[in-house]
Amino acid sequence: MKLFISDDEIDVREGIRYLLNWSELGFHICGEGKNGLDTLEQITRLMPDVVLLDIRMPKLSGLEVIKKAREQGFIGKFILLSGYSDFSYAQEAIRYGVTCYLTKPIDEEELQKAVLEAKESILNEQIMQKKLLQYRDKARDSILHDILFNKTNDSFLDYHDMMLESYVYQVVLYANYNQDSYQATWDFAEILRLANKNHNSLEYLKQDHLNVIILKGNFALNRFQELMEHYISQPQKGSPLDSLFLTYGRPVYLAEHIHSSFEDAQLLMKRRFFCHFNQHVLGYMDLPKEFPTINANAFMENTYPEQMGNYIQSANRQMLQEVLEKLKKDLYYADLEVPIVKHTLADIMIQVKSILTHTYGGMEIPFPNNAAIISTIEEKYYLYEILDFFTLQFEMCMNAIGSPTRESVMDGILHYIQYNYQENLKLGTIAELFGYNSSYLGKVFHKTTGKSFNAYLDEVRIENSKKLLLNEENKVYEIALLAGYTDVNYFHKKFKKYVGISPAEFRRGLSKEG
């Protein structure tokens, strides 16, 4: 602690300097005063912790020095020294907070006791002040928390006293960009303070693992926008700002509406799942205007798996991408929590896998097992990562099926018919799958095969039904369904047309040959 000695007699000052081992007592002498004016100037500039002050000095008396120093905000301890044991001086000194009054000649033990008591008093005050500051900060954080969550009683709040008075407010949340990072989040609040050159332009608190900033005033909002546009939205790779992810709510113009801006930012933080690659910022304008109620079952009814399966088989990458884009948009506007979105996407992928493995039973389709599909999707942090996983798997499937390497689109169409003849196939459906006009495709089909689409499809179905008739466990009507005919009489008619005999006669003939 700093000690200041003031006496108009140099011998007294020297005596005090060497009377005690000040360093051992925890003090260093920061200065000396030889008159009242000189002492007042020095102590208000040096701000010593303890002042040893003679009560009778030229220019200003000790009591006048104490009075003027207190008026200027000096809070150090005074120990008065005097050659007069005058009780009236002591009484006046007590009015200015002086608690120790020593008479000359100074006794070594009394002086040591006086300075150590002053030191202990200062330390106790510092501890108390620290506790008060901690309690105040804790109470302030609690009030700010209630303001954010709209739990305050405005009639009891003094926004001026809270230093929350402003014309405009905006809430900013920030966290680590890498959600699996265990590193401490970079102190963006301090960067904003420096940018604003004013510590009262924002409030900062920690809330549920999120860093919360309440911006106050147009200057603070504008500085944030400038930082965001120039440095945060596209941060330099590897820079500290590259490690941050931010969301911000709408500007509000009353302190009691701060919670609305916070709710925006909080919802955006939950929706970071929908960010695109390397996106570091989401603002209130990125919120959907409305959230239609779409549940997981509605997605499964949307025939996404069937569409994807068909476009994979037809190697129609453009339509496959369009389906994925539609899925992305539907999910963005759906009223679904992220875990439900992931579960829905896993269901879609597993159904696509089921369609393809059922269609190409004897072919090795490069799909992970169901557990691996679920865990891979669960581990992803962003929707774009999951859709990239979809695209990669679909590309591998198309390569395995072989349609991408066929010499012509017509080869791909015939390939598709061979594996899907049991479905309710129409020329228009095939044309859409492969990106053709149905009328044009009908002409190309006839020119390539020498037959109409329906005639070719009937031939494929009848050829496969002949193979199915080898298995005597299946009834004829069951074979009709497996071959793609829902009407068994129609199947009989077509079979007789192409084979010359009925299905039952064909099976009996096979039995005789056996």
Automatic annotation (TrEMBL):
Residues 2-119 form the Response regulatory domain. Residues 411-509 form the HTH araC/xylS-type domain. Keywords: Cytoplasm, DNA-binding, Phosphoprotein, Transcription, Transcription regulation, Two-component regulatory system. InterPro entries: CheY-like_superfamily, Homeodomain-like_sf, HptR, HTH_AraC, HTH_AraC-typ_CS, Sig_transdc_resp-reg_receiver, Tscrpt_reg_AraC-type_HTH. It holds the Pfam family HTH_18. The modification 4-aspartylphosphate is found at residue 54. May play the central regulatory role in sporulation. It may be an element of the effector pathway responsible for the activation of sporulation genes in response to nutritional stress. Spo0A may act in concert with spo0H (a sigma factor) to control the expression of some genes that are critical to the sporulation process. This is Stage 0 sporulation protein A homolog. It comes from the Bacteria. Coiled coil: none annotated. It is found in: Cytoplasm.
